Amino acid sequence: MTVWLIVFKSLRQHALSTIVTALSVALAGGLLMSVWSIKEQSDATFTGVNAGFDAVLGARGSKLQLVLNAIFNLEASPGNLAWSDFLDIQNNPNVELAVPLAVGDNYHGYRLVGTTPELFHKAEYAPGKHFELRPGGDWFDPGRREAVVGDFAARKMNLKVGDTFHPFHGLIFDEKNQHSETYVVVGVLKPSNTPADHVIWIPLAGVQRMSGHDPNAATDVSAVLVKLKAGSAIAGFQMDMMYNKQGNRLTFAWPIGRVTAELFDKISWFDRVLTLVSYFVALVAAGSILASIYNSINERRHELAILRALGARRATVFSAIVLEAATISALGMAAGFGIYIGLMAVAADIIRAETGVVLTPFAFNPVMLWAPAGFIALGALAGIVPAMKAYRTDVASSLTPHS
Amino acid sequence: MPLLEIFQLKKTFVNPEGFDHEVVNVKQFTLDDKAQVALQGESGSGKTTFLHLIAGILRPDAGSITIAGRAMSGLNEPERDRLRATTIGYIFQTFNLLQGYTCLENVLLGMSFGPGIDKAFAEALLQRVGLGDRLKHYPRQLSIGQQQRVAVARALANKPKLVLADEPTGNLDHKNARKSVTLIREACRENGTALLLVSHDRETLSQFEQVREFEHINQVSPEEANL
User: Fold this and answer.
1) Is A261:A255 a contact under the CB 8 Å cutoff?
2) Which domain holds residue A338?
3) Strand pairing of B70-71 and B62-67?
4) Cβ neighbours, 10 Å, residue A289
5) What is the spatial distance between Cα B58 and Cα B67, in angstroms, rounded to a whole number?
6) Residue where a domain terminates, one of A227, A254, A281
7) Which of A34, A282, B10, B36 has its CA 20 to 30 A from that of A351?
8) Could you list the pLDDT tens digit for every one of the 403 residues in chain A?
9) How many angstroms separate the CA of residue B175 from the nearest CA in chain A?
10) How far is A379 from chain B (nearest CA, A)?
11) What is the SS3 assignment for A278?
């Protein structure tokens, strides 16, 4: 009890430096936990996103580009493939579902993707989950200029059923490139928390035959989403072999999760740099604990001498200082959770806005246990140097003038 | 058997010029249980060092100190700390109250390293010295006289066998000094505690039946001690 009283009193007497030091720990701890959590959640979430398909078939090129374009609606399409290629894979006995996609237009930066109704009716974007419409909406008619808008895109552009719009050519919005066709919004998707929320879905033929597009490519598609029949893992290998090793026209990106993981492998150096920065910030925070307590020992020498004169052992004084350092760390980490939640919320918002992928800021991650424990241990370690100084305090000379 | 026995006690410091400087050289000194003795001595005569040696705050270069049958020289530092925490109460000239602690907390600290926290006893002690309504006050919120009374309560908090008082009236006016000495003596008597008070103030010393010249006890002259 006495040691805690000494710690509490000291923290209160040095409230300003306690707050400033605890804040530096909070920033370091919040940053470390956020970087760690975002890294792990992004890794798990992105590699888990596959829109309910096993593979993507596209023009010859990078598998990663193909997946980013067809699944995440990022990047440009590596090229087109002929309608016959779509029919070939659709008729493959190992394929349960093949859905063609065509890209090339946008509406105020939101991508228009041409597809067939099978995407909505047959595909499960997550196990057991089909796309659903908000009340009052309907799916587009493949023969009409109708659109179904993803939840995020609809909210951002305030699009609702009955609204009309003119698409713009290209994947990047340029107001000079407006197409003359008018599309009617017939439905808005309920949130799926997938990249599909960012897309304006129109009939496949809409993109293929949009004015200004190459008439020679009017039957081409940008990619085909492929779902293999259950238990057809070997078929995946066979098709990988057929398209990627034996063939030289097309690319078969399979399995989607492994292809996405390549992206994280490529940017893993960035994770390591961020983590290293976080560790460095943690060391700086520990240094600030050391400095603030160490500097306060001189002014507290008299008080420490009084405690010793009252019978406190050197070990008691030592442990009080170490405990004080650990307590500053603990207080900092408590505040660090607030910073963590704030940073995670901002990061999750940005990632969702950019990709449609949803991170969960409040989800448990082991870093929430080991980071606070590590910081408290680091704080206690930083407290050892000032504690040694307090330990060596000369009682007699620090008490009163001799008479 | 006396409560305090001192033989051949010596303490030397090294002065800034690097020369040894003897401050205490006491051949023999004893204090009986529950006795109240005042030591008269000039400033700089080594009285505080003498009290620090008795309290175990300083280690002597030679000689022995026995308190309540325990030889200080045979104890290591933690044991001396423990003996001080359980056997000795200390009243300092400048009171040495902890400024960030309330009156009650100051007194509680006085007992926490020794017999343990006894809040009711701490409150009773503050009540006894007339500060029952100042338990939650901080030292800065009290007059000098009141601060000294807190110091008295704290010195008695660990139910010591011996209270050492180092110029306890040095910061008080005559009227308060007299009251203060009366209070210290009464409180020690009520608690069955021996008192060894050092002072150079004749008014303070006049309140004691037993007054001894520190010069006669310490073989070092005040001029020498004060070098």
Assistant:
1) no
2) 2-46+267-399
3) antiparallel
4) 30
5) 15
6) A254
7) A282
8) 689 999 999 999 999 999 999 999 999 999 999 999 988 888 888 887 888 899 999 999 999 999 999 999 888 888 899 999 999 999 999 999 999 999 989 999 999 999 999 999 999 998 889 999 999 999 999 999 999 999 999 999 999 999 999 999 988 888 888 898 999 999 999 999 899 999 999 999 988 888 877 777 778 999 999 999 987 668 888 899 989 988 789 999 999 999 998 888 888 888 889 889 988 989 999 999 999 999 989 888 999 999 999 999 999 999 999 999 999 999 999 999 999 999 999 999 998 888 888 888 888 999 999 999 999 999 999 999 999 999 998 888 888 644 4
9) 23
10) 24
11) helix
Q: Where exactly are the structural domains of chain B?
A: 4-225
Question: Global pTM?
Answer: 0.79
Is residue A238 domain-shared with residue A342, that is, in the same domain? no
CB contact under 8 A, B92 and A315: no
Number of helices (H) and strands (E) in chain A: give both, helices first: 13, 10
Q: How far is residue B180's CA from residue A248's CA, in Å, rounded to a whole number?
A: 104
Domain C-terminal end among A186, A219, A254: A254
Residue of B nearest to A309 (CA): B57
Residue B41's closest chain A neighbor by CA? Answer: A403
Same domain, yes or no, for A293 and A393?
A: yes
Pair A197, A318 in one domain: no
What is the count of structural domains for chain A? 2
Residues 6+ apart with CB under 8 A from B140: B99
Question: Inter-axis angle of helices A2-13 and A268-309, to 10 degrees?
Answer: 110
Residues of B in contact with A398 (CB under 8 A): none
Say if A15 is an interface residue toward chain B (CB within 8 Å): no
Contact B101 A310 (CB under 8 A): no
Please list every residue in chain A whose beta carbon sits closer than 8 Å to the beta carbon of residue B46.
Answer: 402
How far is A330 from chain B, CA to nearest CA, in Å?
A: 22
Shortest distance between the Cα of A6 and any Cα of chain B, in A, equals: 9
Interface pTM (ipTM) of the complex?
Answer: 0.89
Nearest residue, CB atoms, A310 vs list B48, B78, B113: B113
The answer to whether residues B45 and B225 touch, using CB atoms and an 8 Å cutoff, is yes
Note whether A78 and A223 are same-domain residues.
yes
Q: Are residues A296 and A248 in the same domain?
A: no
Under DSSP, the state recorded for A108 is: T
Residues in chain A: 403
- Cβ-nearest to A313 among B58, B78, B167: B78
Interface residue A396 vs chain B (CB under 8 A): yes
CATH 3.40.50.300 matches B4-225: yes
Do residue A7 and residue A39 come from a single domain? yes
A308 at interface of B, judged by CB pairs closer than 8 A: yes
Contact at CB, B112 and A1, closer than 8 angstroms:
yes
